[in-house]
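Below: protein 1.
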Amino acid sequence: MESLDGIFALAEEFFAREAIEPEHHFAVSFALEEIFTNMVKYQADNPNEILIRLDRAGDRVRIRLTDYDVDPFDPTEIASPQTDLPLEERRIGGLGLYLTRKVMDTVEYEYVGRQSTVTLTKRLG
């Protein structure tokens, strides 16, 4: 988790280099943090670094996070929380992934050879 400051700095450099409009910064940063922290949380014993790639293709931003030598954890299969229930009746967890799916246009997951990759896209404009 001590890597978060560096991750936010990486995102800010990307926003500046690619001239990403400020109204998209929160969504991209939030999704990046959420997926990264979930990878760390659910693979806590993994000593490998998580590769983060940010790129822009036309009117889209793509975030790709890859975790190596891990068991599968597919964030696209996590059920959405029951947001219509009172807080005291809700199950803990899942809200961050739910919000990530809301602020991003796509969330994709791939698991091959003990390599877990989450790809998120956000349309700009």
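Below: protein 2.
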Amino acid sequence: MAVFQFPLVPSQQQMQITLNNTLYSLRVYWNSNPATNAWVLDISDSSGNPIVAGVPLVTGTDLMAQFSYLNLGGEFIVQTSSDTDAVPTFVNLGSDGNLFFVTP
């Protein structure tokens, strides 16, 4: 098993990253809708074509489980160091709240 921690900061960001020999563009941003107030993930291909959008960074599950047909080759897992069940807050993403890619 290999674990990769995404280098995140508590602000909107976009990065290109290679996962299992495929280049993806990831965008992480804060959705300030009062009903959600959560960090959200968009994944696009290397040309910017959307693959998945608006996936909330929640703990306790593989974020991509519902998209298993995409065969991304691993799981996207969110954990907060101080409380593994707490979702990342507006200010702790990248320090206490983290996103990992875990391959079998």
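Residues 2-103 form one domain.
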